[in-house]
Description:
Blueprint: H1 2-8, H2 12-21, H3 28-40, H4 47-73, E1 74-79, E2 84-89, H5 92-116, H6 123-151, H7 157-170, H8 192-195, H9 200-213, H10 217-243, H11 250-258, H12 261-264, H13 273-293, H14 296-312, H15 317-334, H16 338-365, H17 376-381, H18 396-403, H19 408-428, H20 430-445, H21 454-457, H22 466-473, H23 478-504, H24 515-529, H25 534-542, H26 545-561
Antiparallel strand pairs: 1-2
Helix pairs in contact: 1-5, 1-11, 4-23, 4-24, 5-26, 6-10, 6-11, 7-9, 9-10, 9-14, 10-11, 10-13, 13-14, 13-15, 14-16, 15-16, 15-24, 19-20, 22-23, 23-26, 24-25
Amino acid sequence: MIWETIREGGSNEGAEGRAKDGIPGLAKGEAGRGRSRRREQGEERSCLESAACILILLIFTGILLLLLYLSITGSAAVYGGAEQVWFYKDSPLYHLLVFMLVTALGVMILKVRNAEGREEKSREEQEERRKRFVRLLLILSGFYVIWIMGTMFRPASDQRLVIDCGKALAAGDLLPWNQVGFRYHYDEFEGYAYTYPHQNGQILFAAFLSLLAGEQAAFLWQLLNVACLAAGILYTGKMAEEVLEMKNGFYGLALLMMAFLPFSFYVTFAYGTLPGFACSAAAVWYERRFLEERRKRDLILSSVLISAAILFKSNYMIVLTAMVLFFIAEAVFRKKLFPLLGAAAVLSAYLLSHSLVLGGLSLAAGHSVEGGPPMLTWAEMGLQEGSRAPGWFNNYNVHIYLDNREDRELTAAAVERDLGRTIQYFMEHPDYAADFFNRKLRSIWTEPTFQSLWIQEVKGFGWLFPSFTRSLFKEGGTANEIYWQLCNAVQTLVYAGALLFAVFRFRRVKFQGLFFAVIFIGGFLFHLFWEAKGQYTVSYFTLLIPYAVLGMQDWIHWVSKGRFV
């Protein structure tokens, strides 16, 4: 299905542009009036929009060039309960050969399809194509359900704590919100929600699942993750189809993203990653619907969904920030006020949901439930060395809070002092700073599995096919080597394809077409300084796939015909 997009030859915009270029006798005045009409109808970028697109694309291109270089020269891997990151040298020649092979295969398929003709599909053929897509989507979803049932992984670490706190809340026990600093012990969760209030949304969801499924709440969460994965990808695919004008490309793109195991394996992760992804993808989609049709219902849905996404996982604040930026940009480009109302609505919904959750829990507990170290603590931790990798979790947030007698103000002052010293040290030792960020970036952006195996390895090997899972999860296993090498090749192809998109479509991509790029840039910059992990960045990497598909499509057309799409 994905190759049908390649055969179609790109977007309607490009086809229309080539058709107009070929009309003889078109006067300058007529061309100027045509451009004016297209600009008024939103078919052509205004000067302000072009400037914004150029700025975003320059930043996007710079980041992709850096990540592509890091990806072809080195890789990383994470194994074992210690979550230690190992760094390896990579072969640029290997990645070049893979890229050439994919290019040659794409050119051959393109020529075969062009030889078959480019007739419009009948309604019956389109309906059959839709049914085939639904069948394949259900097959992939069924595979993930079988995988969950065959492994039956028990939650570990923060997943376990969230589930246990949810069970306690469902039973009327408010021990997680006791005003004590939380210490990581396997059988205890007292003070966990009080110390880490950003987990409250997930805990409330876990409590709801506990009321429904009791001790099987974590298992139910994993099954619901499959639906969240499919929903998030469908919304992302539809958004990409519209803003990137992927003619007939939705089905292939959605299936490709659904089959991307480094993200799809997170169905086994009883955490807010996939529910938050689904909610944020839907929120972005309904924001676009509101901007196009101005329906209040779409704005309400967008506001509620992005608030839910942030409750599931606070990292989706980056998506909220991108949404607000696009509301403001639309107000400037269109010279209209209604997009500003949209920005106010999504921000108000987030603040209201945050206040309602904290207020409700405080009322139930009879005291404030917002304690723990200040958020700046995670920034300082993201700039420190650690046993796992530079900028990864190293217990700094736990120790600094306990060392300051669990006092938020004292902790904040101590963190500010530490952060000042860290920045000063980086400035005085630029070579060390460069090496630190090089290792940190490699640990999260060149680990091709994005911890999709590690999150399962630490839970055991399952009951249905333990021999295969052992081979898949453990370093040196045959299945592990195959999976890792495939992911390594795909990761570089995605970076290269997204970079080609930025090059080929530099002049004609619209501002809304860069929504995913803005989210990706935000995620990259945020985790450059914040605590980092591959499991945090995988959702941003997944948003590069639509760009990579179009970039490779444009490249294959250019190689085949010697011109842009």
